[in-house]
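Continuing the batch. This is chain 6 of the set; chains 1 through 5 are on the previous pages. Same settings as before, nothing changed between runs. Recording input and output for traceability.
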Amino acid sequence: MNEVSGLVFLFVAAVLGGAINAVAGGGTLIAFPALVVFGVERIVANATNTAALWPGTIGSVWAYRRDLRPLLRLLVLLFVPSLGGGLLGALLLTRTPPALFGRIVPLLVLFATAIFAARDVFNRLAARSVEAMRRADEGHVSLAARVWGILFQLFVATYGGYFGAGIGILMLASLSLMGLQDIHRMNALKTALAFVINGIALLFFALSGIVHWPLAALMGTGGLLGGYVGARLAKRVDQRHLRTFVVVMGLLASAYLFVRAL
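Output for chain 6:
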């Protein structure tokens, strides 16, 4: 593709990625491979993808602000592990040799796709009484659930700072196991936490000088547009069709990256 068509391709990928992140998670499975196809080195593509999709979380958090209000207590609880894990993951990425990351990344994409595809399995593991679900959806969870949430969020945030694809699915699974069932409030909370994880990772990447800023600015505009529109449409979209699309794209991206790594 020529440069103009390539830039249009990246912008469209960012719009799709931002919208998918807002509705279901998994936008990195669209935006990151697009950067690799465009010819960006993988570690730089990963950092640039974080910069590109992070503005989308701003739009999504704003669109979800009413759903987030009942869960501010949980947001505060999970803020520190999100911040610490995101920073740790970003540090690990910059310490990974590019050749090694090139071999790891197809496995990471495949892992994230599998997590995305298994979302319903995670949700079924979290069956609880109606009263317990109601209280959890208002932010009242047990001590055991809070401890679980902090530890698992630290793992998710570390993975998210390192690569990022699938963290929305992992957080939705964790919130389900904590007792939450209202998908719109869960989406609001995971979007706010993704904003924290990707924000601290982006700050570290920026200070490390590994972000391709012109591409990040272009895709960031697309991600912001997609994130806001996706959050506004989240309650109307048939998520089954969207999840199928993300899984298919994730499998295709993983296959492509495996071939590129040979």
